[in-house]
Specification:
Blueprint lengths: L9 H11 L11 E3 L5 E3 L12 E5 L3 H6 L4 H4 L5 E5 H7 L5 E9 L2 E10 L2 H11 L4
Amino acid sequence: MKENKKNMSLTELKDIAWQSAQVVEGYNPDRIRKDACGAWIAYVDFNNHDSLFGWEIDHIYPVFRLKVLGIPEKKWDHPLNIRALHWQNNLSKGDSYPMYTAVLSDEGATNIKCEAIYWVNEVLQYSLRKLFKITE
């Protein structure tokens, strides 16, 4: 059976990614959140590399690796594999998985440069392997 599901629009992906970001008490969740590494991000600064609070859509299991594994493109943007990440953290993460380096985190109500190692949690790793039918 041929699948007729269209690819999601950038707006849909952006909204899915934004919903994955951490809500911070005292801040409007439609405007300000934190990424998985604790860096502040602002909804209006999507794809803005000139902003201290700019962010991008991150594929948790990197697209490069999915291509190498032969995973069909229509599966890459599954909501389970999408999250919001500050653009500097997304750049430093690159194609790393499940361990990656972040270069930005929060200091009070702003972001500061700092290098930290993060791991995609094991439950999510398992779910992504199952989703993409990866036997590692």
